[in-house]
Description:
about 15% helix; alpha/beta; 19 strands; single chain; 7-stranded mixed beta sheet
Amino acid sequence: xxxxxxxxxxxxxxxxxxxxxxxxxxxxxxxxxxxxxxxxxxxxxxxxxxxxxxxxxxxxxxxxxxxxxxxxxxxxxxxxxxxxxxxxxxxxxxxxxxxxxxxxxxxxxxxxxxxxxxxxxxxxxxxxxxxxxxxxxxxxxxxxxxxxxxxxxxxxxxxxxxxxxxxxxxxxxxxxxxxxxxxxxxxxxxxxxxxxxxxxxxxxxxxxxxxxxxxxxxxxxxxxxxxxxxxxxxxxxxxxxxxxxxxxxxxxxxxxxxxxxxxxxxxxxx
Length: 270
């Protein structure tokens, strides 16, 4: 039987939320630990901070709305491609988006190595998910950037040339669901990171392009038996202990949702 964390530790979720949002420049580190002595990997570590420079949402639609701001992305195989985008939170709760090292200022890397089918056409699919940049580096971080309810963030998307013209991998819908587990995704992407670059000999003149954003409200603790919280003196790190046998990462992964952008055209030009 799972207890309600609010009843067990009054004000816990509110306190954690306020702690994570205290300052744009002050990320809060979380260590969520299971009390079970039978698990080898019973602690997950992640940090939470707020996106700088959010603004009131300008997008229509319910929930989380992802918009690519151009109908066509001009792409050359010898250069990075650019596309402006917005992620709008039109829901009632704050959302948290996993980002590793791929965000620099207001520029975020997109990795469209997947080939899928949507909207009646083939598409190159980029996704924003946990440890996204393990495609390029081995020291990926687990951290979440917050967008408050009713706000949005505008970013400049950068598609690195390495992932523009190399052959895309056909992935089924079942894989897209499975890769929300970061271990599964890391195993798949490790081979991509180590592969030498080659240009796709069958590169089309144009193809659809979509960007999926995986997000969570980070309220998964509300349904778990939280048995203790412990802040450090600096109030920048909190350890949360939960009285379950399962690995905590499973609860976090299970709380994730997916928001898909509009489909635009990726057009290759010489």
